[in-house]
Design goal:
Number of helices: 5
Distance between the termini: 48 Å
Number of strands: 5
Shape: globular
Largest sheet: 3 strands, antiparallel
Helix content: 40-55%
Radius of gyration: 19 Å
C-alpha cells in the first residue's frame, strides 16, 4: 500500500467512525495513533494524526469524558481485539500451554485450553464463572484478491462455519 493510500484509508476510517458515533471515532482515533504515531509516515498522515490529538480533546469535552476514561476504554478494546484474534485464528495452544493475550493494567493475561476443551483466562476478568461465545467464520482458500468485488464474490460463495468457545473460571 502506498503512503497516499494508507493516508486515505486512515482518513476514511476515522471519518466513518465519527459518523457512527463520536465515541467510536475517539476509539478509532486512539487506534490510528497507536498504529502510526511512532512510524515513519507521509506528511499528510502525520498531520492527520496531529489534528486528531486536538479533535480527541474537543470531542472528549463534548462527551464529558476524560482522557483516563478514554484510555481505559481503548485498552479494554485492544485486549478484547487480541483475544478475539487468538480465538478466530485458532491460535490457542494445545496441551494446556498458556499464551499471553496481552497486559491490561499491569496484569499479564493468559489464555489456555483445558483437557475438556473449555478455555480459561487468568487472571479471570469476568463477573460470571462461565460463559460461551461464538462467531461465524467465512473460510477462504484464496489469500489475495484483485479488488473488493472479487473478495465479495468469494465471500458470497463461501458457506459460513460457526465456531463456539466455552470459557470457565480456573478451579
Amino acid at each position: 500500500m502506498s503512503d497516499q493510500q494508507r493516508f486515505e484509508e486512515v482518513r476514511d476510517r476515522l471519518r466513518n467512525a465519527y459518523r457512527k458515533h463520536r465515541w467510536i471515532g475517539l476509539l478509532e482515533s486512539m487506534h490510528a495513533d497507536f498504529l502510526y504515531s511512532d512510524q515513519d509516515v507521509c506528511i499528510e498522515l502525520a498531520e492527520l494524526l496531529e489534528s486528531e490529538q486536538s479533535k480527541r480533546k474537543s470531542v472528549s469535552r463534548q462527551l464529558a469524558t476524560t482522557k483516563a476514561k478514554l484510555k481505559h476504554a481503548y485498552d479494554v478494546m485492544k485486549w478484547c481485539d487480541r483475544c478475539s484474534l487468538i480465538l478466530c485464528q485458532g491460535k490457542v495452544p494445545a496441551m494446556e500451554r498458556r499464551l499471553e493475550i496481552n497486559s491490561l493494567y499491569n496484569d499479564r493475561y493468559e489464555i489456555w485450553q483445558r483437557e475438556d476443551k473449555s478455555l480459561c483466562i487468568a487472571p479471570w476478568p469476568f463477573s460470571t464463572d462461565s460463559f460461551e461465545v461464538g462467531v461465524e467464520v467465512f473460510k477462504l482458500q484464496q489469500l489475495s484478491f484483485e479488488n473488493d468485488r472479487e473478495l465479495g464474490d468469494a465471500l458470497d460463495a463461501c458457506k459460513p462455519e460457526y465456531r463456539k468457545w466455552a470459557f470457565r473460571q480456573s478451579d
